[in-house]
Amino acid sequence: MTRTKTIRGNIKDTKEHVKKRDSINLELNHFDRMISLLGANSKKCSECKRLYTDVEDYFEVLKEKEYHLNRKDKKEGKVLTNTIMKHLHKEHNLFRQGHYMSIFIPLGTSVGLVVGLLFFGKIVLPTVLGLTLGLLIGVVLDATVKKYNRTI
Predict the structure, then answer these.
(1) How many Å is the maximal CA-CA distance in the chain?
(2) 81 and 58 Cβ atoms separated by less than 8 Å
(3) What are the CA-CA distances from residue 151 to residues 30, 62, 67, 85, 143 (Å)?
(4) Strand partners, 95
(5) Any bridge partners for residue 151, and if so which?
(6) 90-133 pLDDT, tens digit each
(7) Best CA proximity match to 14, nearest among 76, 51, 61, 63
(8) pLDDT exceeding 90 applies to what percent of the chain?
(9) pLDDT value at position 103?
(10) Residues contacting residue 79 through CB under 8 Å, at least 6 positions apart
């Protein structure tokens, strides 16, 4: 059995044994995709290789503890997830699903609010239009990223 299959098996076992809330907090659904990306890039990138080993070790430790998570384990899982996400974003130009939407919705809303107050003396309609425009731009950019398979 390959290392990736072993890790995926450990992730699946972890999903089955931990509480649903812990599964969501640890972002176990993202680990499958992250493992694939780390494995594909580990030949070229030493940091990917190290992170791949860290993920493998983390799930082995959880398996040894019979999936009884304490605060330290949860925090370690979140730190590991964030470290992987940051690395994949900075070094391999990969983005989280909804990345652009989370940027452009607040930006559009704030621009709509400012334009509405300065030029129209109204708040509601320009703010809603700004929010809609930000949502549209974010969705289009996220779809483009997904089309080119650049999502985590």
Answers:
(1) 66
(2) no
(3) 11, 27, 29, 10, 10
(4) 151
(5) 95
(6) 999 899 889 999 999 999 999 999 998 888 888 888 999 999 99
(7) 63
(8) 35
(9) 95
(10) none
Q: Do residues 37 and 85 touch, judged by C-beta distance below 8 A?
A: no
Q: Which residue has the tokens 């990736």?
A: 4
Q: What distance in Å separates the CA atoms of residue 61 and residue 49, rounded to the nearest whole number?
A: 19
pLDDT in tens, 69-78: 888 888 888 8
Question: The pTM is what?
Answer: 0.79
**Spatial contact of 134 and 91, defined as CB atoms under 8 Å apart:** no
Q: Are 148 and 110 spatial neighbours (Cβ–Cβ below 8 Å)?
A: no
- Look up residue 128 and give its two tokens: 């809603």
Whether the CB-CB separation of 112 and 133 falls below 8 Å is answered with: yes
Nearest Cα neighbor of 59 from 1, 120, 18 is: 18
